[in-house]
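Two records follow; treat each independently.
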Amino acid sequence: MPSVTTVLSATESEKSKAGLRTWQANNPGALEAASTRGSAIHKCCENHIRGLSHDCPEEYEAFWNGMSQYLDWFDTIHWSERPLRQDWYHLRSDDKEVAYVWSTEHLYAGCPDLIGEIGGVKIIADFKTSNGPYMNRFPDKGDRMGFGGFRKYQKCAQQMAAYRLALHERTGYLCDVALIIVSTEQENQAIFIDGDQLSLYESRFLKRAQQFHEIEKNNEATDCSQQELQEQK
């Protein structure tokens, strides 16, 4: 099954894809650096949740500072990169190194960052590092930084809605809200998304999942036709 992020990336508009290519060309190595930074902060979060020393690399300390306060909100944690409750162990790989949630109905899979509870409220959370803050409302005209933050928020909201649906399908556990924890060098954010909004983002993601699989079918049909043509030749 394709990952949630694969589905979202493959179904971006052509304008968005072209913009990303231009940004990558103008900022060589920036995407890889952001990925490395994100992995380091995820590891810090995972260690903190498990009561271990976070051992954050010095160059990422600014992104880590202040994030632990949001992790400490949780009274109970059921999942941190992998299930912590025994009745969810069937979601782990055979070697127990990784874990996923997936939807057999809509054909996608993914790995949430954190699932837990705050005051009895069931929450699915995601950690993000960013050069600028996220924005959960449409920005003012001309606010390019705000527009970038809004696009990141929209994508992350669909990502968590997809994980929430897959988790419910696999375990029967339905999260009430989602939480995006964003860290930049200057500030940290905790953005909650209520259940009604998550249902809206779920619908948007499922349309994109359907679009993704239609594209895949068309590509497979094209490949088969080309193969048959080669065989005939």
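The next record belongs to a different protein.
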Amino acid sequence: MSFTKSGTPKKVNYLNNRDILKEIHLSKTSYCYFSKKEYHRYDAIIDTPLEALETSLDCILNHEILQEAKEIRAARLSVETGEKVDPNDIPNTDLVFRVMTWDHIPVAVKQPRKTPKKKSAKDLFVFEDTAQSDVYPELEELVKEEVDDMVHVKVNFPPFQHFKIDDKKSFVCIGKSHWQGGIKGGSFNKDHGKITDKLARMYIMLCEKYAMKYNWRGYTYNDEMKNSAILQLTYVGLRFNEAKSANPFAYYTAAITNSFCRVLNTEKKSQNIRDDILEINGLNPSWSRQGSGSSSTVYEE
């Protein structure tokens, strides 16, 4: 353990955004296929649709995003080689761009809702319809046609593709997420990867540290809160989008807070039902009910 000049131990930062981003990247890489291993690193993120890439290539080449990509790549190479690299010496053909797209994700029929949709006023009341089919008879056949609601297959994080600029100044695909078996001859696969062991330990550490806060550690169902939060992180952990933010710590903390509040609300509802039953039967309710004189407050997620 290292100490400061005053003799007190230095504060150790066990979790930081840089390490979390690194593990998120490695976890997502396990779900991807790249024509070369080194292509998993990207220098810039582009939200432009694939069909607009070729038309906007000239704008991208002259845009500040190109200079930013060179500076990021130069900084990374400087750390790896130990020598300062000039961003202007990096050719455009060496840059790797991550394009956020759903084009390589297959579509499927939309699954029905588990809970019925709430009826609107239009569904509750029947309005008289003027003979519209008599005015537009061709519309009657169109209404009767059944149209399947097709949606993309659900994946565990926003899909993307990696591109490079070749000598002909056109984009070439060098990698795809949720893919295996080659760029052209491969197939979609969303289950062949996994999160890293270090990222899983980060999930557990975040939940344990959060459960030790003064406003949560006193509950008897604290372990249930932690387990629910860990389960939630395994579900939404890789959904963090690097194109939107560079602060995964805040993203994970918000997910943990919502999980803790959800368990707390469930337990308070159960406690309120139990206290109501005790009061109906002439027995004393819990000390919380007796002290407050009313139902417990429900936290909002």
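Discussion point: The radius of gyration is 27 Å. How would you locate this feature using only the token line?
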